[in-house]
Amino acid sequence: MSRLAPHAAIWPERLPRELVVPATTLWFNLEVSARRYPDKPATLFFGRALSYAELERQAVALAGWLQAQGVGAGDRVLLCLQNCPQFVVAFYAVQRADAVVVPCNPMNRAEEIAHCIADAGAVVAIVAADLAGIVAAADAGPAPRLRALLVARYADALPPTIDPERAPPPDLEAWLRADPALPPGATPSTRWSDALAAGLQPGPARARPDDLALLPYTSGTTGMPKGCMHSHRTLMPNVVGGGVWSQFGAEAVALGVVPMFHITGLMYGVLGSVWSGSTVVVMPRWERALAARLIARERVTHWVCIPTMLIDLLASPELARFDLSSLRGLSGGGAAMPQAVAARLRDEFGLTFAEGYGLTETAAPSHANPVERAKLQCLGIPIFGVDSRIVDPHTLAELAPGEVGEIVTHGPMLFKGYWGHPEATRAAFVEIDGKPFFRTGDLGRRDDEGYFFITDRLKRMINASGFKVWPSEVELLLYGCPLIQEACVIAARDAYRGETVKAVVVLRESARGRAGADDIVAWAREHMAAYKVPRQVEFVDALPKSGSGKVLWRALQEREAPRG
């Protein structure tokens, strides 16, 4: 608990005050669950089960294949797939090879993936078949970095025929069953099935708790995305704590639709589930009718999501047909839950949505609402072992309840720093009372009971339906457009997404009078993930700048609309 521990009085009686976290590795968690529950489904993919014993067997075989490609202890391996059983297998195969997982957003374009490969120094990529060409293109050049591509087909994890109650829409099933050719190029490509069939055995598992296990990428206020270094030891507190907080044990059945490349989807759909021996019903992308049918058919008990999913689900004209009676745990974050939606969930389904808060740097949650006393549009209270405070961003003096300042956090799940960026790492931490606190960059307040609330962004992050969009990254990508001379990216209000991306653009002289907003958007769709693409484009003759030549983005933001 924190020094002040103002939330101690409302700490749920069912929860221990402190966790006892095993000093073990993520791979060991799978070994244990495979012995305890060998025949139990680790995942269900449109009705097809992958048992814990089979998950372990496949992970060992792929670890042998990885080591045959020269992957050694501490090497980085890129994972670029939508949610699927192969993602889970691949994650644990990398762990068994004593290597480091670099999860990559499968919506990224070649330029974004190239940065990730180069910055992490990835040596092998495990990719979905429809993304293999993009990853190969990202690594193309006079000196490719990747030694090999391992290419997985989603169809390999599907049942031959799908029960109508579990069936995806026709367009989604056609995409899942597609069989793209292996990409040409200098980097050798191997089919997933061939790597498994080779039956290669890895050497002894030698990873230790303080070894690097995960390198997820996140953006800051300047520059391109940076890798957050997480060891087995920094991940295990939330792996264990998530299950304790949510009463998530081996009997639980979770809906895994939050992307597994994202720290939240990874924590609850890949790491926490294997620790507990529970089952994850895997969805490769959001489809509200399919989600509702799978909840009913598989009797899903727990669902971690973002509020926009629930907003979409409750907007369905078929809502009355949805059987959500098996759900007993509903939680998430990424965006505030509207009062009206929470009221409908409670009144019509008897469900309380427990909001939480966390970052890639904190391995997902640092705060959560206890379901017994959840508050709406609230980050919750600091979880096990977490000390969070509201401080003045300039003096770092702690502020009183109700006062707005920066949220800073200390806890066992804090990352070890930004990969290859020691200066950014130093800037991200401050020392208070002899302890390192991470500067979240979020402005918030704490009430008298110890609940935290977010009020603003100290950083320039845009929150679009729970997806974090960093203006500086989008700007850097937009500068690659041959039509653009200068660009500044700000947030604009959006009725559905909450915030959306707006680009204020100065066109090149040669493009003036002939290029329109549609041209900018079309280019952006080819070069960045869909959620980063500007939904609005405004053309100006010049961007406002300071005396030193810096673009005054805040002036543009304030002109657009106040940020709340």
Give structural notes.
- This protein has 564 residues and is α/β, with parallel strands linked by helices.
- The chain is built from 16 helices and 28 strands.
- A 9-stranded mixed beta sheet has the order 2-1-13-12-14-15-16-17-18, sandwiched between helices. It has a 5-stranded parallel beta sheet with strand order 4-3-5-6-7, sandwiched between helices. Strands 19, 20, 21, 22 and 23 form a 5-stranded antiparallel beta sheet that branches.
- Helix 11 links the parallel strand 14 and strand 15.
- The longest helix has 17 residues.
- The chain is globular, with a radius of gyration of 23 Å.
How would you sum up this structure in a few lines?
With 564 residues, the protein is of the alpha/beta class. The protein is 29% helix and 24% strand.
Keywords:
24% strand, 564 residues, 28 strands, globular, single chain, alpha/beta, 5-stranded parallel beta sheet
Q: How many extended strands? A: 28
Count of alpha and pi helical runs = 16
Kindly state the mean pLDDT as a whole number? 92
Measured by DSSP, the beta-strand proportion falls in: 15-25%
Q: Determine the fraction of residues in helical runs and give it as a percent range.
A: 25-40%
Low-confidence stretches: none
Strand order of the largest sheet: 2-1-13-12-14-15-16-17-18
SSE class: alpha/beta
Cα gyration radius (Å): 23 Å
| Straight-line N-to-C gap | 30 Å
Spatial shape: globular
Largest sheet: 9 strands, mixed
Strand-helix topology:
Layout (H helix, E strand, L loop, with lengths): L25 H11 L4 E5 L2 E4 H17 L7 E5 L4 H12 L3 E4 L6 H11 L3 E5 L3 H7 L9 E5 L17 H7 L12 E3 H7 L13 E3 L2 E2 L7 E2 L2 E2 H15 L6 E4 L6 H14 L2 E4 L5 H11 L3 E4 L1 H8 L14 E4 L6 H11 L3 E7 L4 E5 L12 E2 L4 E5 L13 E6 L11 H7 E4 L2 E12 L5 E6 L4 E3 L2 E3 L1 H8 L5 E11 L3 E10 L9 H11 L8 E4 L13 H8 L4
Parallel strand pairs: 1-13, 3-4, 3-5, 5-6, 6-7, 12-13, 12-14, 14-15, 15-16, 27-28
Antiparallel strand pairs: 1-2, 8-11, 9-10, 16-17, 17-18, 19-20, 20-22, 21-22, 22-23, 24-25, 26-27
Helix pairs in contact: 1-2, 1-9, 2-3, 2-7, 4-5, 8-9
